[in-house]
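dude i think i finally got it to work??
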Amino acid sequence: MGTYSNDAINQLKALIDQVEEPLKRTYQTVHQGYQAETLARFLKAREWNVTKAHKMLVDCLNWRVQNEIDNILTKPIVPTDLYRAVRDSHLIGMSGYSREGLPVFAHGVGLSTYDKASVNYYVQSHIQINEYRDRVVLPTASKKYGRPITTGVKVLDMTGLKLSALNQIKMVTIISTIDDLNYPEKTHTYYIVNAPYVFSACWKVVKPLLQERTRRKIQVLSGNGRDELLKIMDFASLPHFCKREGSGSSRHSEYANDRCFSLDHPFHQQLYNYIKQRSSESEPSQPIKQGSFHINMPEPAVEGTEIAKTIESQMHKFEKGNGISGSLDRLKIKDNSDHRSRNCP
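look at this
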């Protein structure tokens, strides 16, 4: 980091050092011993403006205290069948590590339906994955590689993305708002694979709305991205939908048993067992309570709202275009059929 960056980090540190309990305690949970890297993330998210970064970080700490985020890894989603339903409808998992030691998170954007549980369960599960990543996965990787590892890479599978995804925009907006405000700059690079035409149409209008900092992180790869991703990670760390040679998703391929979205995958088994173990330690004489862990949903930022509206508008346009095209096709079929009838002997 340059002198300007270090000066900004030192200024922000001096301000944050003044916070009192319980903010100080939750701040320790956030930085996990990597203060400079944590402060730099919030500064980057606010274009290195110390005043704005300070407000963002304090707001984040207050959100954590008000919603007891430090305790969320002691609140398993039970029964297990409910958690399995959440996993089967919000497709996310960790498939391995890049060669630089960054965890690789896979997201099944196109096939996530968010229709098997209430919004609160999806939000709880998402935050638990974030917290497990930040408290367990990243510190473990940092120790293994002997340097601070505070970000990961995400591979976004657009297989199955359809116009019906309009119904999912609200849920995605809630999750992305929580990440933007409370887990900023946690992704080093986004790799988009298996992108259908509907994604390409939306991407053209959404891309100009993104901040330059965000645009630089996003790479849209050809097909399932296998060849490009193998430049930064080993084959074993590829998400299952990238393992088939050539283009297209491997959803129904020989790698179906290696689906990192599944509750049966080692990552999710370790995560779920970790939460249940923490729960039994925190309340050893109490049975695990059923019910979701309610989180106050933050208001989406203006940029996020504008992007969501733009995607919705573009999808509607695309839908109308498909409707007209489909009607014309049906008319052509009917005309051809009538023509054949008239010419039948």
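The two ends are 84 Å apart (CA to CA).
im so relieved honestly
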